From TrEMBL:
<dbReference type="InterPro" id="IPR055438">
    <property type="entry name" value="AstE_AspA_cat"/>
</dbReference>
<keyword id="KW-0479">Metal-binding</keyword>
<feature type="domain" description="Succinylglutamate desuccinylase/Aspartoacylase catalytic">
    <location>
        <begin position="12"/>
        <end position="175"/>
    </location>
</feature>
<dbReference type="GO" id="GO:0005829">
    <property type="term" value="C:cytosol"/>
</dbReference>
<comment type="similarity">
    <text>Belongs to the AspA/AstE family. Aspartoacylase subfamily.</text>
</comment>
<dbReference type="GO" id="GO:0016811">
    <property type="term" value="F:hydrolase activity, acting on carbon-nitrogen (but not peptide) bonds, in linear amides"/>
</dbReference>
<dbReference type="Pfam" id="PF24827">
    <property type="entry name" value="AstE_AspA_cat"/>
</dbReference>
<keyword id="KW-0963">Cytoplasm</keyword>
<protein>
    <submittedName>
        <fullName>ACY2 Aspartoacylase</fullName>
    </submittedName>
</protein>
<keyword id="KW-0862">Zinc</keyword>
<keyword id="KW-0378">Hydrolase</keyword>
<dbReference type="InterPro" id="IPR050178">
    <property type="entry name" value="AspA/AstE_fam"/>
</dbReference>
<dbReference type="GO" id="GO:0016788">
    <property type="term" value="F:hydrolase activity, acting on ester bonds"/>
</dbReference>
<dbReference type="GO" id="GO:0046872">
    <property type="term" value="F:metal ion binding"/>
</dbReference>
Length: 181
């Protein structure tokens, strides 16, 4: 992709690649660990690309989560909860992630979070979008699909007019999920 921005929007300068949101989904975990050790292949001039293991305790136990699903707690109530000793691990982790990559909904939030997942569904490699009006992600998806051709890469739009997403990737200005069978 020769341009790092959609017409009329700011350039994408900070990108995070998440793996391990669910600790038993190992493709993203292995890629993130690989890129943490040798990130040359994901670095680009003029951009910060940060591979990040989102739920290390669940990864260590190879379980989906410890106390609750990390991919469902990025809502204002959980992100604003007072940290007390008995707060669920994933809520505390969401607050940490929001602090590092956000705050969610702010100009300071990372430009793009690409969240890598696995699934047992027969959906192959699928990109997940939360907003059909995000010109940057639409252009990026078009580029990815063109680059992968003739491989099949479906795009699933989970947009809902009144739903505010509480996914890990929703911290970014441009959230994208990638699911792989």
């Amino acid at each position: 992709m020769s341009c790092s921005c959609a017409a009329g929007s700011a350039p994408v300068r900070r990108v995070a690649i998440f793996g391990g949101t669910h600790g038993n989904e190992l493709s993203g975990v292995l890629l993130v660990k690989h890129w943490q050790e040798n990130g040359a292949e994901i670095q680009r001039t003029g951009m910060e690309v940060k591979p990040f293991l989102t739920n290390p305790r669940a990864v260590k136990k190879c379980t989906r989560y410890i106390d609750c699903d990390l991919n469902r707690v990025f809502d204002p109530d959980n992100l604003g909860r007072t940290v007390v000793e008995d707060i669920p691990y994933e809520v505390r982790r969401a607050q940490e992630i929001n602090h590092i990559f956000g705050p969610k909904g702010s100009d300071d939030a990372y430009d793009l979070i690409f969240d890598l997942h696995n699934t047992t569904s027969n959906m192959g490699g699928t990109l997940i979008l939360e907003n059909a009006r995000d010109d940057f992600t639409i252009q990026m998806v078009h580029y990815i699909k063109s680059a992968l051709a003739p491989e099949h890469c479906p795009v699933l739009l989970i947009e809902h007019p009144s739903l505010k997403y509480a996914t890990t990737r929703s911290v970014a200005k441009h959230p994208v999920g990638k699911y792989e069978k």
